[in-house]
Amino acid sequence: MTQIRVSQRAAAAAALLLASGFGTTTATAETPYPSRPVTIIVPFAAGGSTDVQARLVAKSLQAVMGQPFVVENKAGASGSIGARAAAASKPDGYTLLFGTTSTASETVLNKEAGFDIRTDFTPISMITNVPFMMAVSCGSGIKTPADLVKRAKENPGKLNYASWGYGSTGNIIGEMLKLATKTDLTHVPYKGESPAAMSVISGETDLAFLSPVQLPQVKAGKLCAIAITGGKRMSALPDVPTIEEAGVEGVHMPMWSGLMVPAKASNDVVATLSHALDKALKSDDLVKAANSMSLEIIGSSPEVFKDQINGDIKTVTDLSQKTKLRQE
């Protein structure tokens, strides 16, 4: 079962709100926030893990706040295009970013990203912790991480792995695997997680680290999960070991999703969204959907989210000095 660890930020946030509920003002004392539809920019393609999560959260926020929350996909450049668009939007709370660990890594890895997550956004809350499957084609003959490592060492430079862009979560974990196992795997970037998954199914690539959104492909026998990242097994695949259990150490990084607002948004907007998310993440429908995808709903205060981002940036900075995380 998904463990919900939503923090006790609601009380603090509520103190900044009007006693009547979400009556925060943005422009005038007569205009509550939100008074019109809110756009949530997803910086990745439709159908991937981030997109699916964002749509679930949007639906739950709409129920809580009484205004439409509309997901808009702006994919490309490892998420930089969407993040850049969100950062440049008016900081009035009507354009949000549904970011991921990849959004933080782009700040380090892409000099042309056009945004800095630390200065261009105000964190609202982490949403989920996402386990990833080490997935191969079921017809590849690779049954375990040890099989993969053996084949890679016997064929240096000939095996490859797919991701959804330089600096993406799949790229980061792939480079961690190369470093930990001392293997030479070629990185092949795609424009989204779903295209990356399809490349493994078709045999165009040998491996990808994929989110639980791709579980239907595993259940259908098109992909085979040979290990799970993180410290525990995935509830939907209880017989698949963690990558540590499979004998590979040093392949771990927290993979989160979270909601952010452009920097300089008012304290009232931040508090309103924080308070609303506290309620939205407890939605029965959201919890049920998260359980079905083996996602852990975590929630957080803006301060905890900020600390997580800073920690991840340090991790990626250190990793980038040892591996190929930048496009050459």
Automatic annotation (TrEMBL):
Keyword annotations of the record: Signal
Q: Which InterPro entries match?
A: BUG, Bug_dom1
Q: Which residues form the signal peptide?
A: 1-29
Domain of life where this protein originates: Bacteria
Protein's UniProt keywords contain Ribonucleoprotein: no
Q: Does the keyword Signal apply?
A: yes
* Pfam families found in the cross-reference section: TctC
Q: Which PANTHER family match?
A: BLR1237 PROTEIN, TRICARBOXYLATE-BINDING PROTEIN
Family that this chain belongs to: Belongs to the UPF0065 (bug) family.
Name assigned to this protein: Tripartite tricarboxylate transporter substrate binding protein
